Amino acid sequence: MIDLCIIGAGPAGLMAAIHAARNHAQATILEANPTAGRKLLITGGGRCNFTHAGSPDQIARAFEGPPAAKGAVRQERFLRHCLHEFSPDDAREFFRSRGLPETVEPDGCVFPAGNQAAEVRDVLVAEAVRLGAHIQYQAKAIDVAATEGGFAIQTQSRRIAASRLILATGGLSYPQTGSTGDGYRFAQQLGHAVIPPKAALVPLVVQEAWVRDLAGVALADVKIRTALDKRAVVVSGNMLFTQRGIGGPAAQDLSRYLTDALFETRRSIPIEIDVLAGLDELQADRHLQNQFQTQAKKTVSNVLSEFLPRQLALTLCLLAGCGRQTQAGQLPGEQRRQLVRTIKRLPLTVTGVESIAKATVTRGGVSLAQIDPRTMESKVRPGLFFAGEVIDLDGPCGGYNLQMCWSTGALAGRSAARPRTDGDAHV
After folding, report:
1. How confident is the model at residue 422 (pLDDT cuts 50, 70, 90)?
2. For the whole model, what pTM was predicted?
3. In terms of DSSP bridges, do strands 245-247 and 377-378 run parallel, antiparallel, or are they unpaired?
4. pLDDT at position 423, please?
5. Comparing C-alpha atoms, which of 304, 20, 52 is closest to residue 166?
């Protein structure tokens, strides 16, 4: 029987193995793929935004998205302990001290200086192996069961007995990387409740057909507003028009709030995009008025094209009722104000989200109520631990979700390495 089996050689599983080995537990990692960290390699467009430059409490607060169901454990509260145990600063020092320099962008996103996700993965694998972890590739776990002395894990070719087990299998997003959702099934087999998984950080699908004409048009620093149960929701960031709606960080962050509402009510949700978020409505009107006066002979759309993408400028004019050939100096004041309202409150109707195959992370997973946040150990099955996206945790874009993986993985690995006492057993 081995000390510890970890299912999944992703960010959470590798970090768990490293911290278990530091505490003198030999870990065997079962990885279904021929290489480790396949999903990690595509994060941040291949650049790997591996954490966020914030305090543990700031990171925890970012996980407080939609209101939790009555009686549910709040993500923010659940994460606070593990984020203090292995903080964003700890994650940054971990990689820096192993020869991986970083760059911090103005919004707090932290990337490897070389902008290569493979460098992050390679540091993790090298450190895990250096400390004695044994990674078995193409070793897909197909079944798990509790035994009198621990756990039995069945792979395609062998049966493994382990006294402790960490499920770090990931979620359902990006299934092409091997995320199949098996961890949810294993958790249920071991007595755990699983919150139904849904897409999170995913592009939004909208009703309006005109977005197709803008597919590929990117906007920087917009604000998107909506209201859910009379609660105002505002997200900020870059966005991109797609063939079916909107994507990019701002739209993906908004999807965390909308996914559950769309799933539960089956109703569309109106949203508004503030295309010029740096100006309030009065300032935007004054800006346009000044531009139209100084460039009176140009068409309205040509003036707008000086600070907005041309195709978007044409669409805004159409939606606001301005003729394509209308000269800026001839636009009536009320029409100008209508154009400003359209720019500041561009309306769209969200009817759904793209499939989970296009999602960055999964919303839902193993219920927080059945996991001890001080250890990541199961309250249902002693000796069973959880780390990473398999847990019902999902944060916004910006390195938050990888920090969650580092923190839950580190805590699960440390906890799984501790000698068990009689007081550790859960009733």
Report:
1. very low
2. 0.92
3. unpaired
4. 43
5. 20
Output the six-digit token pair for 356: 């989970």
Residue pair 132/21 in contact (Cβ under 8 Å)? The answer is yes
Kind and range of the H or E element at 335? helix 333-344
Within 170-329, residue ranges assigned H as helices are 182-189, 248-265, 281-294, 300-304, 310-320
Beta strands in 169-260 (DSSP E): 194-200, 204-206, 218-228, 231-241, 245-247
Q: In the chain, count of helices (H) and strands (E)?
A: 12, 20
**Burial code of 254-272, b = ≥16 C-beta within 10 A, e = fewer?**
bbbbbbbbbeeeeeebebb
Cβ distance 80 to 56 under 8 Å? yes
pLDDT of residue 229: 85
Residues 6+ apart with CB under 8 A from 111: 44, 47, 48, 49, 50, 102, 103, 104, 105
What pLDDT digit, counting tens, does each position of 335-348 carry?
999 999 999 999 99
Q: Which domains does the chain show, CATH number per domain?
A: 2-199+361-424 (3.50.50.60), 203-354 (no CATH)
* Phi, psi of 37, rounded to the nearest 5 degrees: 60, 40
Q: How many whole angstroms separate alpha carbon 203 and alpha carbon 196?
A: 19
Has residue 424 got a pLDDT over 50?
no
In which residue are the tokens 């820096």 written? 96
Poorest-pLDDT segment among 55-69, 100-114, 228-242, 286-300: 55-69
Q: What is the pLDDT of residue 67?
A: 63
3-state percent breakdown (helix, strand, coil) of the chain, nearest 5: 40, 25, 35
297-301 own/partner pairs: CB under 8 Å, 24+ apart: 297/327, 297/328, 297/329, 298/327, 298/328, 299/324, 299/325, 299/326, 299/327, 299/328, 300/326, 300/327, 300/328, 300/331, 300/339
Q: For 47-99, what is each residue's pLDDT tens digit?
A: 999 999 999 999 999 998 766 554 567 999 999 999 999 999 999 999 999 99
Which residue in the block uniquely carries the two structure tokens 């966020």? 52
